[in-house]
Write a structure and sequence with these properties.
Blueprint lengths: L17 E4 L3 H12 L5 E4 L11 E4 L2 E4 L13 H8 L10 H5 L11 E4 L7 H19 L12 H13 L7 H19 L30 H8 L7 E2 L4 E5 L4 E2 L5 E2 L1 E5 L4 E4 L1 E4 L3 H11 E2 L4 H9 L1 E3 L1 E8 L10 E5 L13 H4 L6 E4 L3 H4 L1 E8 H8 L3 H16 L9 E4 L12 E3 L6 H8 L12 E3 L12 H30 L1
Parallel strand pairs: 1-2, 1-12, 2-6, 5-16, 7-13, 12-21
Antiparallel strand pairs: 3-4, 7-10, 8-9, 10-11, 14-20, 15-18, 15-19, 16-17, 17-18
Bound molecules: flavin-adenine dinucleotide (FAD).
């Protein structure tokens, strides 16, 4: 008998077979919730040799270096990652205080602790503070643009450029160039936050759809992966199959399983192994779907879903993490800003990638817990320059970064870093970028369409379900959005079987 049909057996006598593709936080969260609700015929198929996906904590020294997600964004009661981290006691005491949870950041950029210019000078703190304040207020305005009066072709970059251009006229020539360079750096930083090449790609009308939670961002002393490991520990050991790359999800079919039962879905792996199932939850990244959607599902996705995959944006943000024998920054310094003189957000500059890719780096974050991991600076770089950086050798990146720091600190003798980590999220074939954003031309509905299961109705509904950060309308691009999307799809299945079980019980009365 085909499983998943209206007449299927209740859970207790015939557990539905559920496959989850991907062991990132969304896949693990879906598995954990389903297992907790009695789903015992459950497998997670993961292409890589590790779980966690874009949560990737590399053990180093006596601590961890985060190659993927780093901060709990908005650690407060509304953030499920934070709530779980509290439950499992995974945070430092200061991250658990009420004061921390109440801080309202509202997208305001923290002021960089020290700002160097490309001519090796320290830029006045007052100037940096003024420009950062102005920029943050415009950014806040861009988040509250009314959708009703908004031109659908407008971008956040365009909105900010207009604001800058309108102020530029009043600036005297003495520090006009420095102000423009400061704005350019802040826009480059915004590209890292949004995971895009240019803020001109990010839709203005929907910028406010992303919901920012209160709370001062915090990190996991035992690595972000400690939360994945906690959730994973509730599953039997043989639930997650690593190095199991899914090639095609065949749905709307009739496939015989090894138990001789018939199933509507068959998942075919790259190594030739097949798995039959009643339901598959696809949690692969939007980057992977953009690349592979046409062959990943058979029959192909309905046109509205294929279009939504194209419409929603997905870009690259990478980290370059440098370890120094001794810090050249002050003990209380948490961030270092780089300001490229001569750059302007109002000029479209043609880049010579080989020499100019570093110009996209807005600065550094000083990594916490140096007593465990050494003296580390982490820089971020987004967009085409970031993807170009991935093509360079480690030696090339390291020597460019050393030269960059020597130039900006004005110290040609600055010792070179002793170690470097850098990510290549665009070249990762099972991620193909970093995270999603709402691109110009997309609508919030596109995200909802991405999340819609297939088919939605009929005799065998919910064969293919979709989770992952890009399917969460207000928390896309984050770990909490990913987690909630996994729970959402698990609950969709749980609800379905509760309905069927109650129908069956009624018919027995
Ligand atoms: C550099 C960087 C910094 C970030 N910083 C933060 C941060 O500070 N805070 C925050 O909240 N978020 C941050 N994020 C975003 C966050 O990491 C992601 O939103 C979240 O981890 C995504 O989880 P997911 O389960 O949706 O996807 P993933 O973690 O990508 O999981 C999908 C899984 O599917 C697997 N897969 C793909 N294709 C196949 C296939 N064909 N067969 C089998 N398996 C497959 C992948 O290998 C992967 O393990 C950051 C991301 C990056 C890249």
């Amino acid at each position: 008998k085909a499983m998943g049909s209206e007449s299927r057996q209740p859970m207790a006598s015939q557990p539905p077979a559920v496959l989850i593709i991907g062991s990132g936080i969304s896949g693990i969260a879906a598995a954990q919730k389903l297992y907790a609700h009695g789903f015992r015929n459950l497998k997670v198929l993961e292409a890589k040799g590790r779980t966690g996906g874009r949560i990737w904590s590399q053990s180093y020294g006596k601590g961890f270096v985060e190659l993927g997600a780093q901060w709990i964004h908005g650690p407060s009661p509304g953030n499920p990652i934070y709530q779980l981290a509290l439950k499992y006691d995974l945070l430092d005491p200061e991250a658990m205080t009420m004061e921390n949870q109440k801080v309202k950041v509202d997208g305001h950029l923290p002021l960089f602790r020290i700002s160097y210019s490309s001519s090796g000078k320290i830029v006045s703190r007052e100037l940096v503070a003024n420009i950062t304040e102005l920029y943050s207020s415009w950014l806040e305005q861009s988040q509250s643009v009314s959708q009703k009066d908004c031109d659908p072709k407008a971008s956040v970059g365009g909105f900010l450029q207009q604001k800058i251009a309108s102020k530029e006229k009043d600036w005297d020539s003495a520090n006009k160039d420095m102000k423009l360079a400061l704005f350019k750096g802040l826009l480059d930083l915004e590209c890292c936050i949004s995971g895009t090449h240019s803020m001109n790609y990010v839709a203005l009308c929907l910028y406010g759809e992303y919901t920012m939670l209160p709370g001062l961002d915090c990190t996991f002393p035992g690595g972000f992966e400690s939360i994945v490991n906690q959730l994973k520990s509730s599953l039997p050991n043989d639930t997650i199959l690593l190095n199991k790359t899914v090639k095609t999800v065949h749905w709307n079919g009739t496939f015989q399983g090894s138990d001789s039962q018939m199933y509507p879905v068959q998942v075919q792996c790259e190594d030739g192994e097949t798995f039959e199932a009643d339901h598959v939850i696809v949690t692969v990244s939007l980057g992977f779907l953009k690349e592979k959607a046409s062959s990943f599902l058979s029959p192909a996705l309905p046109p509205n879903k294929a279009q939504a995959i194209q419409n929603v944006g997905f870009g690259t943000n990478n980290k370059i993490i440098l370890e120094f024998k001794e810090p050249f920054w002050d003990p209380d310094c948490k961030t270092i800003q780089l300001i490229w003189e001569g750059e302007s957000p109002l000029l479209e500059t043609k880049r010579n990638m080989k020499q100019d890719w570093v110009k996209k780096i807005p600065g550094f974050v000083v990594l916490e817990r140096p007593e465990r991991i050494g003296h580390m600076l982490c820089s971020f770089i987004a967009g085409d320059e970031s993807e170009y950086m991935e093509t360079l050798t480690d030696d090339e990146v390291l020597s460019s970064m050393t030269a960059l720091l020597r130039q900006f600190t004005g110290n040609p003798e600055l010792p070179a870093p002793i170690h470097m980590f850098r990510t290549k999220w665009h070249s990762e074939p099972y991620t193909h970028g970093s995270y999603s954003y709402i691109a110009v031309g997309a609508s919030g509905d596109d995200i909802d369409i991405l999340a819609q299961p297939l088919p939605n109705e009929g005799a065998k509904p919910l064969q293919v379900l979709f989770a992952g950060e890009a399917t969460h309308r207000s928390f896309y691009s984050t770990t909490h959005g990913a987690l909630l999307s996994g729970w959402r799809e698990a609950e969709r299945l749980i609800g379905r079987y509760q309905e069927l079980d109650s129908l069956l019980n009624k018919s027995k009365l």
